[in-house]
Structure formats: C-alpha cells, structure tokens
Automatic annotation (TrEMBL):
BP GO terms, sorted: meiosis I
Organism: Sinosuthora webbiana
Stated name of the protein: MEI1 protein
InterPro entries in alphabetical order: Immune_Signaling-Apoptosis_Reg
The organism's place on the tree of life at top rank: Eukaryota
Length: 302
C-alpha cells in the first residue's frame, strides 16, 4: 500500500486536504507501527519518491502562508494537514538517520520561521505547535546535519571582522543564535504554564533536547540556560492549583533536567527528598505509565 498511497500523495496539491490528510496519516502510522525490518524498507520507499517529498515541501511552506491573524482556535482541515506533514517529516528525519537511507530529494526549511512559530505562536492550534516542536526536536538531535534537510536562514558571522563575545557564542551554537535560544526557552516556559497535557509533554521534551544540544555545543551556555531563576518560579506555578503533587510527569522530567545539569538554585535537597517521600507513599503499580517512566528517570538521575 505504501507505493500507491505515496504516489497518490505526489499527485496532489496542498489544498487537497480531504485526500492528503488521511494519506499522510497512513504513511506516518505505517512508519511507526511496522516491524524494524519492514520499517527500513518503508523509509526507503518513501524517501525514493521524489514527488512525495516535493509535496511535503509545499505542505511545510504552507505553514507560513496559512496563518492569518483570524485563524480559528480549533483545528481546521488545513491545520490538520500541516500537523500530519510536520509529524511525517520529523519521522522521516529520525528513521533516515537511523538506517542511513539514501536520499533522492532534500527538503528545505527556514529555521527562523520554525523558531518563530514556537516563540510567537500567533494563535496556532496546540496540536500544530506540538507537531512543529517534534520536528524541532528531530533536527536538534541530529545537530542540524541531516542529509534529508537543508536549513536556510542560518546565522553566519561576517567575514573579515573579529567576532565579538556574543558572536563567538553564536558561532559555537550555529545555526542557532543566543538570542533565539533565550527567546525559545522563555516561550517554552510560557507554554508549559498552560498545563495542557499534550502540550506539556512536547514542551518538556523540546526543552530537554535543546539543553542537550547546547551542552554539546557550549557547556557554559547550557548550564546558564538550565539554571535560570525563572525555572524555579515555573515549578511553583506548575505545583499550584488543585494538583500539588510532585508526581506529575512534566514536573518530574523538569526536576530530572535540573538534577542532570546540577541547577542547585532551581532544585534543592528539600525538593528531592519530597519527591522521594511522595514516591514512597504512592502505589507505584497504580501510577500512570507517563508518571512511572518519569519517576524512574528521575530516581536514576539522582
């Protein structure tokens, strides 16, 4: 089925949402649900289809064209197609890297547009934001070096001039700039305050991947980002309201991040003891899977 469905996609236009959206979803789930052996073949089939990749390029570009100020808060058919497109491309990036699959056609993405989509949001539906963050995580994990992807809008130092301190940091973090990093971190924190479960999971995962990327590029910058005082206020905000327990997946994963990068001004021995105390009193077998996994990671890190 991959052959006819992917060929059908390649003959469509981005406006053919009724046909494209379920087709892209089928391709996405085929990649994720098949066996590892079949998965490698499926990736090869999709990446060899030039017309499909050209269609995906057009779909991604529509993200910036279909964003009027008056767009509805609910998920329109156009936004649903964009979600499917970004998730499929993120998956193709992941599996192409895993299997080192030959690439017949590259995709081009403007990094500034991707970052601005998360930083400024512009009334984008939550599911579209989550899909774009999945893509951002994929390129961060691959150090912006995928053979499937061409990043445009990169920050480059001016030749012939001696870099200033900020420029030196920008060079180390290339293709990101320091200002983009801090704007992205603040926006992720603000999105986390919404306390939407799906959004929270995506935001924390994106923040984890971002700090890991920064740590490889420049440890001082990564530790500086991880120890921002605003993080502690964010934790208090997440623990406010009806659910005060530390045993929330997004809280545990944030705590794990701060322990990993030794942010002692954010998480103290008192908070660590309180989490362990709550875990000791909880019925581990009855905890949701997301909470159980997050608790395991936290205790392993401690």
């Amino acid at each position: 089925l991959l052959f006819p469905v992917s060929n059908l996609c390649g003959k469509c236009r981005p406006r053919d949402t009724d046909l494209l959206q379920p087709s892209l979803n089928f391709l996405y789930w085929t990649l994720h649900q098949t066996t590892p052996c079949s998965q490698q073949r499926a990736v090869a089939v999709l990446l060899s289809n030039v017309s499909l990749l050209e269609l995906l390029q057009k779909v991604l570009e529509c993200t910036w064209l279909w964003s009027p100020p008056s767009r509805p808060a609910y998920l329109s058919p156009e936004d649903a197609l964009l979600c499917s497109g970004w998730l499929l491309v993120a998956s193709l990036l992941l599996y192409q890297h895993r299997y080192n699959t030959e690439v017949h056609q590259t995709l081009s993405v403007d990094l500034t547009e991707v970052l601005n989509a998360v930083i400024f949001r512009n009334k984008k539906p939550i599911l579209l934001l989550v899909s774009i963050m999945q893509f951002l995580r994929a390129v961060l994990r691959q150090n912006f070096s995928s053979s499937l992807l061409v990043i445009v809008g990169q920050n480059t130092a001016t030749s012939g001039t001696e870099p200033q301190p900020s420029s030196l940091q920008d060079t180390a973090l290339h293709p990101l700039a320091m200002q983009q990093v801090f704007s992205l971190v603040v926006s992720l924190q603000n999105l986390l305050v919404h306390k939407d479960l799906l959004l929270s999971q995506a935001v924390v995962a994106c923040l984890e991947t971002l700090v890991e990327y920064l740590y490889v590029k420049n440890q001082d910058v990564a530790l500086h980002v991880a120890s921002q005082p605003w993080h502690r206020f964010l934790l208090f905000t997440l623990l406010s309201g009806g659910q005060k327990s530390f045993l929330q997946p997004e809280v545990l994963r944030l705590m794990t991040l701060f322990v990993r990068y030794q942010s002692r001004n954010i998480i103290s021995q008192k908070e660590i003891s309180q989490i362990i105390h709550e875990a000791a009193e909880a019925n581990i077998a009855e905890l949701p899977e997301a909470t159980s996994c997050a608790l395991h990671l936290f205790l392993s890190q401690v």
